[in-house]
Structure formats: C-alpha cells, structure tokens
Amino acid sequence: MAVLSGVVMVFSNKLAPKMRQVVIGAAVLLFLFKHLLAVRSGIVTMYAAGLLWLGWLGWQMGRWRLAFAGAALVAALGIACVLFFPTLQNKIINTRTDTEQLDSAQAANNFSVTARVYSYQVAWITVREHPILSVSKVKLQEAMAQQYSYRFPEINPDRYVLPHNQFIYNLAAYGVIGLLLFTLGFYYPLLAAIRQRNILLMIIYLIVSISFVVEYTLESNIEVIVGLFFILLASTPTCTEEGSEARELLTPQAQLA
C-alpha cells in the first residue's frame, strides 16, 4: 500500500519538489525491502497493483511511453532482486518444492502451500453438505476437523487449518447466501471508486482482494483495522473534489456573484 500510494502521489503532481524526492526514495526503498523480506503474497500483490496503476497511467492518462518505461524499470529491479537477494532465491526454491508435494496429503504436515490446498478441499466438502447457510463460523473448525479425520487421516490434527481464503472461508462458514451478502457489501464502494476514477482506492481494493485469496484476512482484528482503514482513507473526498461538488450545487446567479 505504501509503495503504490507513494507512486500515485508522485504522479499526481501535488507534492513539493523536495517532498517528491523523499516519496520517490521511500517507495523505491520499500519496493526493494519487500523483495528482501520475500513474502510471496506481498510480492505478487505489489506487482499486480503496480500493473493496474501502469495500465491506468497509459489508458486513462495517455502516458503510454512513461508506463512502458516504468514497467521496464520495475522488471529490471525485480530481476536484480532475484539475482542478488538470497532470501528471495530461497523462497522461490521452497515454493517450488512445496508445490511438488500437492499429490501427497501427508506433505500437508510440513508444507504450507500443500496444507492450504487440502484445506480448500475439506472446506469444499463442507460446503457441498451445507450449501445454503453452511455450518456457521462457530462450528466451522469442528466440521472441518471431522472431514479432515475422515478424508485425510494422513494429516495430523495439529496441522488442520481453516481455508486461507476469505471467499472460501465465508462460503464454508455462511454458505452461498452469506458469501453473496459479503461480496455485495464489501465491494459496493468499489463501484463508486470506478465511477469517480479514484485510482488509489481501486489499487487498495485490489491489494486487499488479493490478500483475500491467500488469507482469511477479515478474521483477525489487526487485518480488519489495516484493510478497512486504508480503504476508508482512500475513499475520503479531497478538498478539490469537495470544492468542485460545492460549485456544482451553486446556482448560476450565485456563481456569478
């Protein structure tokens, strides 16, 4: 969020020259640090949100040359990180090893990606048995534990995990109706962001949405606070927007006066 917010601020031409340099330096530093930290979902999210912004820069702002130059720069930095950051190299090797174990249920005891894939399968079994309202959040862990022990006895009870996917989690906990209500309620403000061409809000929505794919993000207090706080912050009208709306409400006579 900080990297992409900084980039949006820089290209909005609303920063003082010295502050512009500070924001550029901070964005580049955080971009490199994300690769050094080597969190898979964080890196994928940053690149996906960056791709959205580059597309916006070219399509909506007509700055295709700058968009292609930015894409080339990001690609060069990313390749350099792969070559020079051992943490990122190790993460790539570990991920490849992990995904090669997907056919073995016993591997879920030791590999995180494999464990998540099997949690999705168990959650889907629960959904098929209770598709409309499901079993509720309170009973979800117990219902999945029963399915784990019956379907995949090779997996140890201490390695039973809930589905690390907000959409699958909601579907397993609240059924089809609950998932539809959640999707409508959470993404309704995004429609306003698209109409208003609020690229920052769209970027943050994309970041949070990708986190939904790999985590049940909204099931912990800190992730609710972080996610919703920045969505609300990005959706706050700017002074310029408020001023333009106020001018639209004035009558022609009042505007002349």
What does this structure look like?
This protein is mainly alpha-helical and 257 residues long. The protein is built from twelve helices and no strands.
Portion in helices: over 70%
| Portion in strands | under 5%
Oligomeric description of these chains: single chain
- Indicate the mean pLDDT: 90
Radius of gyration: 22 Å
Biggest β-sheet strands, sense, barrel:
none
**Number of separate helices:** 12
Gross morphology is globular
What letter string, H or E per element, gives the SSE order? HHHHHHHHHHHH
Number of strands: 0
Structural class given helices, strands, pairing? mainly alpha
Gap from first CA to last CA: 43 Å
Low-pLDDT segments, ≥5 res: 242-251
Summed up:
With 257 residues, the protein is an all-alpha fold. The chain has helices at 2-11, 17-37, 40-59, 64-84, 86-99, 112-129, 137-151, 166-196, 199-214, 221-235, 239-249, 252-256.
Helix-strand layout with pairing:
Blueprint: H1 2-11, H2 17-37, H3 40-59, H4 64-84, H5 86-99, H6 112-129, H7 137-151, H8 166-196, H9 199-214, H10 221-235, H11 239-249, H12 252-256
Which features would summarize this protein structure in a list?
mainly alpha
